[in-house]
Design a protein that fits this description.
Elements: E1 5-8, H1 18-33, H2 39-43, H3 50-55, H4 62-76, H5 86-95, E2 100-103, H6 108-117, E3 127-129, H7 142-151, E4 158-162, H8 165-174, E5 177-181, H9 189-193, E6 199-201, H10 204-210
Parallel strand pairs: 1-2, 1-4, 2-3, 4-5, 5-6
Length: 211
């Protein structure tokens, strides 16, 4: 294993949240804007932060869209599931004494909802960087740089694992290795390939072999 530290995105990387995010995006845009927006467009900005996503639909109604989304989305976390195979991968990394962190565009309140539903997940992570921790969000490097600072790691010994093109761009800007995963359900392999990550993997088992 070449890396000494691994930082993870949350949605679509650790937790299988595509269905609940899509449902809440549909609800918010239908309720606030009265529009039917294709699923591909609804998911195109996932990974860059909720306000960024909503700005693409109506710059004048971002706050209303965000509030409506959150009211619909937060209760859905009660049925949240982990991504298939991620528990075993995290267990292997922890057994190898690899420091682990989460760097997400979610608020920490929403991260907490995920931990409450999946209480075993929190134990693996030394740090969590959420939306409140930096002014700029992915694809800017600031959240990953904050994660490195908190966990005490060097960029050249760290991998950032995520399922969105914004994750890849942020990792490259921060000087860490960019590992893209395809199991998230938000973005296609072709979309990830366009950002030229250091590797693309299809399963958590394959991820372990590439670290």
């Amino acid at each position: 294993m070449r890396c000494r530290t691994v930082l993870f995105d949350l949605d679509g990387t650790l937790i299988d949240s595509a269905a609940i995010i899509l449902a809440s995006m549909r609800h918010a845009t239908r309720s606030v804007l009265g529009r039917e927006i294709p699923d591909e467009q609804l998911l195109a900005g996932v990974g860059a932060g909720l306000r960024y996503e909503m700005h693409a639909f109506d710059p004048e109604r971002v706050e209303e869209l965000v509030q409506t989304y959150r009211e619909h989305n937060e209760p859905l976390h009660a049925d949240l599931q982990p991504c298939a195979g991620i528990n075993d991968a995290l267990e292997s990394l922890r057994a190898a004494n690899v420091p682990l962190g989460i760097v997400t565009s979610k608020r920490k309140l929403t991260v907490r909802l995920a931990f409450e539903t999946l209480p075993w997940l929190e134990q693996y992570f030394d740090v969590v960087v959420g939306a409140e921790d930096t002014e700029r969000h992915k694809p800017h490097p600031d959240p990953i740089l904050r994660g490195l600072e908190l966990i005490g790691a060097r960029a050249d010994e760290t991998v950032y694992v995520g399922d969105s093109p914004f994750d890849v761009l942020a990792a490259k800007a921060a000087g860490v290795r960019a590992m893209a995963v395809t199991w998230g359900g938000f973005h296609s392999r072709e979309r990830l390939e366009r950002e030229a990550p250091d590797a693309i993997v299809d399963t958590p088992g394959e991820l372990l072999g590439r670290l």
